Amino acid sequence: MKTMQKLRTLILAGGMLTLAGTAAMAEDSYKIGVSEPLSGAASSLGVPVVDSIKAAAEVINANGGVDGRKIQLVIRDDQSRPDIAVQNFRRLSEEGVYAMIGPNQGSNTLAVSAIVKQAKVPTCAFNNTIAITKQNNPYIFRCQTSDADNVKAALLFAHDKLKAKNIGVLYTSDAYGSDAYAALQKEAEAMGMPVVGAEKVNYGATDTTAEWTKLLATKPDVVILWGSGSTMSIALRNASQLGNTAPIIGAQGVAASAIIEGAGAAAEGIYMVTLTAPDQVTEGQKDLAKIYKEKNGDDYQLTIYDTIGWDALHLVAKAIENAGGDREKMLEGFEKISNYQLAAGTYTYTSDNHEGLGVDSVWIVQVKDGRMIGVQHGL
Fold first, then answer.
1. Which residue in 137, 270, 276, 347 has the fewest CB atoms around it within 10 Å?
2. Cβ contacts of 367 within 8 Å, gap of 6 or more
3. Domains and CATH numbers, the chain
């Protein structure tokens, strides 16, 4: 693949980002809608995802597009809010997009599900929230792993590698945190590893000291930290300030560069469930890694949020190809994707399975000297 060149023009108007010259190319392109958190509490996830979607678009278009037609991105900021995500998806569906990418948060995906189903526009959703593919909605595809798999990976690592006899849980109040906590309880009980303490913090909270104080009083062997957004940096700092010595295993929402940087020294030594071990570039990541290192320097580490955006647009392009460019056949186009190796893993969809990736794609990484290092792949 040819390497990415910098976007020449970026227009910001009315809350919508779009590539310059889109009006001229509209008739000769495939319009793809993107709704991601470019501001608000989850921007640490949305910004790198959108950057990688743009990188994928440049590479695909530089190589002739899909069947000779370019990809046109219409990008909107959902501000990390379900109500704005609903507005974005409604407008994007009215604009005749071939597919939609996003949202990043489980609460936002659940909020837009009815619109997606009514509009019959296949949607590549990034979040792990188990419930998003349980809504009797054939148009939602998970471009990620489910927290059913992520929770299992985290607990097995706690039990087998960290020798935990019990766990404590700190989780966020949104669908992402609450959904995972319900799965954690069941899985931990089945493994004979009781949850000795659990505390819920508000999504977007700016202080978690009170919750940590109560949780650490239960003396957990390992703490599972499940949530996303800026609150995760704060939670790690608060735990350190209180003198926590229990190992921490964070969710994928913690494995973002901005979260690790925001936590500073408090992130050192924590483990995280993710899809990318930045120190171990796979065959499917080589093209993307080359682009990002040329752009950001050889020291740059790919994260999950770089890989899943890249993968999502390639999945959409493959679905268009499978559908023969027919918008009405896009659902069938997605469900024909099989054993498609990309940056985060190998994707397969069928009419009965919209999960995309399985537990074999899961990595456990650890922060060492401020960098994420691969510890374990799969179960």
1. 137
2. 260, 267, 268, 269, 270, 272, 373
3. 10-145+283-358 (3.40.50.2300), 147-274 (3.40.50.2300)
